[in-house]
Amino acid sequence: MPNYKIKIQYDGTDFHGWQIQKDRRTIQGEISRALTIITGKRVRITGSGRTDAGVHALDQTANFYTTLNIEADSMQRALNSLLPQSIRIMESAIVDNSFNARFHCIEKTYRYSIFRGKIITPFLYRYYLHYPYDIDVNKMKQAGEYMLGEKDFTSFTSKSSANNHVKELRSIEFTEEENILRMFFVGSGFLRYMVRTIVGTLLEVGGGKIEPDEIPNIIEAKDRSLAGPTSPPQGLFLFKAKYPEEYEKL
Questions:
Q1: Residues marked as catalytic
Q2: 144: helix, coil or strand?
Q3: Mean pLDDT by 10-residue block, N- to C-terminus, for the chain (250 residues)?
Q4: Whether 226 contacts 210, CB under 8 Å
Q5: What pLDDT sits at residue 160?
Q6: What is the pLDDT of residue 249?
Q7: How much is the pLDDT for 163?
Q8: Do the domains 107-240 and 3-104 match in fold?
Q9: pLDDT for position 81
């Protein structure tokens, strides 16, 4: 039974996240529906991780097994012919049966994009947070340094998230170009709303509501009410899912 590895890009605006939900349109649900048409059977799809409602992906990785043995290119074409244009299978390969998109993922990068101009064009609003306020990016960078390493991020996640809130945040990188500010978050894994809450907190720092040196106390308190608001989903992209070298190549 072949194991297909696929790389997916999607605009998450019109979906209730990655994971299948009853009576709600999701990315996983749309791919599962297409695979049922192709194979005539229900197919279980495993993704590198979940994205929330409204969040996008440039490099989501998934795998699935089927009893239908067809070429990877043919599977890619068949899926894309059945999926909405907002979901595209960018690459497809048949890989070793041991590969699991979730458990073999060793690192993820998320990108959050902010448009700082006075007016945002209709062609950007689906993919950027519009934030036309003065912020001190240097202070945001200072605050980000306090978040790096292996820490308990209870203050930056929802109550419904996993019991173990310890994650390793490996880097936060900032890029600025005209009116656009982007932040890249690299880590071994992320909790629900973690990146968006970190962004909301960093914006509070940039606006002078929280000082950079208050971050260690917020982390130590393990109290969600002390961190900033959860930033909107449209600025967030799953930018890269990384795998060991033996699984990285399609």
A1: 52
A2: helix
A3: 96 96 95 96 94 97 94 97 98 95 97 97 97 97 98 88 85 96 96 97 98 97 96 97 82
A4: no
A5: 59
A6: 64
A7: 74
A8: yes
A9: 98
Task: Give φ, ψ of 205 to 5 degrees.
Answer: -65, -45
Extract the tokens encoding 207. Answer: 């606006």
Checking phi first, is residue 217 left (phi over 0); if not, alpha (psi -120 to 50) or beta? alpha
CA–CA dist 164, 151 (Å, integer): 11
Q: What is 107-240's CATH number?
A: 3.30.70.660
State the greatest distance between any 2 C-alpha atoms of the chain, in Å, as a whole number: 58
What's the burial of 7, exposed, middle or buried (CB within 10 Å: 0-12/13-18/19+)?
buried
Percent helix / strand / coil, the chain, rounded to 5: 30, 30, 40
Is 114 within 8 Å of 180 (Cβ atoms)?
yes
Helices (H), the chain: 27-39, 72-82, 137-147, 194-206, 215-221, 245-248
At 49, the amino acid letter reads G
First to last CA, the chain: 18
How many Cβ atoms are within 10 Å of 184's Cβ, its own excluded?
16
- Say what the pLDDT of residue 156 is: 96
Q: Is the dihedral of CA 77, 24, 107, 144 positive or negative?
A: positive
Q: Give tens-digit pLDDT for 11-26.
A: 999 999 999 998 899 9
Q: What angle do CA 58, 247, 150 make, to 5 degrees?
A: 70
| CATH number of the structural domain 3-104 | 3.30.70.580
Domain ranges of the chain: 3-104, 107-240
